[in-house]
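ok here's Probable chemoreceptor glutamine deamidase CheD:
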Amino acid sequence: MREDEFAAIRQYLYDETGISLSTGKRDMACSRLAKRLRHFGLNSYGAYLRKVQDGDPPTERQEFINCLTTNKTDFFREPHHFDFLRDTVIPQLRASGRKRLRLWCAASSTGEEPYTLAMTLREHCPVSEGWDARILASDIDTSVLAHAERGVYDLDRASDIPPALLHKYFLRGTGAKAGKISARPELRELLTFRQINLIAEPWPIRAQFDVIFCRNVVIYFDRDTQHKLLTRFAAQLDPNGFLFLGHSENIHWLADTFAPLGSTVYKMRGATDTPPPARTLPRSVGRSVPEAAAPAPAPSAPTAAAHAPGGKEDEYNIILGDVQATRGPAVIKTLLGSCVAACLYDPETGVGGMNHFSLPGSSDEGTSARYGAHAMELLVTAIMKKGGDRNRLRAKVFGGGKVLDVASEHLNVGARNAEFVLKYLEAEGIPVMGQSLGGNRGRLVRFRPHTGQAMAKHLAGREQSQVAESETKFGRELNQRVETPPDDGITLF
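and the structure:
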């Protein structure tokens, strides 16, 4: 993808959706749009963009948007928000004599968040007590919205749903549907799904909401777009309503409109005073959590206590395609050849993690953590889910050695990996505190996320041979899949 093509794609995406795609997302855009080029038999991203802009066919604009929107979600993601809904919002409505609740999930993605909200309302706003609760679930991406409306998920997606709620609110698939779960009608009837572009005017909404969830969305908008969107949210909220944002989103600059309540929960400025939730042990909806599972307060910096005699470090070994994030004393290890491992950490909370990827991006596997464009996004998200702050992240990077056989070296894998990870970190504003990249030998990397300490040891003998053999096998498979790029400056990985 040429620079001018990427610039045009970024501008068109911004004009249509408000999403400000960073310069570090070029490989991601290349990977995700490549399938549309193949679909139309095109050999130029510029030609594809002209087809989208010309409305040929009219549905392609939506396909373009679907390809470039990010859809990361889980059941009970950022569980403190659902605790706040249960412990503060619902009791406040009940105390006011109201048993009517309207909630907008403004970025529903594949549906895990709205179904988690539906479980919360079913548990704590029972119809038997006269509650009238409804959820509007919207997204700009029609493909993920269709997935959400179906309400069918792989069973392994349900690991964060408490067993009692999983049994109560989901059906387990059998026969051809074995390994799947499906949301029961009790949840579905609370939900209305609708495609909504957050920057379009006007929104097809008449109701005012008691709660708006718009988590991990405004980080993709520039400040002007954020201001417009949040101002419109304020107009759509009840005067005593609440706005929930994502863990890395802060709107202190809009203090004249929203008052922070902590943990990225906001109320309308001038609303009736709302006490913060009591500082008790968090409990997920419908289950109790043992004291040992309660998240400890974040220290101002990692301390020597982490290395106190008798202190135990969890140990993780990761391989190609793995992403591991931890909080507290831990060691993450991996063996690298031409692959790269990015080690990210938040020095204030002791949260960090490591990934292990093999190429910057791929037209076939753009959502696989074997490829850097996705592995980096997964790692940052995993760290934030553990309580790390994206704005405080520091990095150390390793790998990118020249270890593949001669038949694979024309791909220049190690050098491309090293170049990619440094460009990504620069574009995301994450400072690199240390690196060991390149050379002709593999590395054993040991990383302690809670302190940021990392060690890289060059491999020799049997371990070096094993790494070289493993990555050479991958390189040969890659040779069979990678097409020779056309002579127009476009590279498909």
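+1. The CA atoms of residues 41 and 421 lie 31 Å apart.
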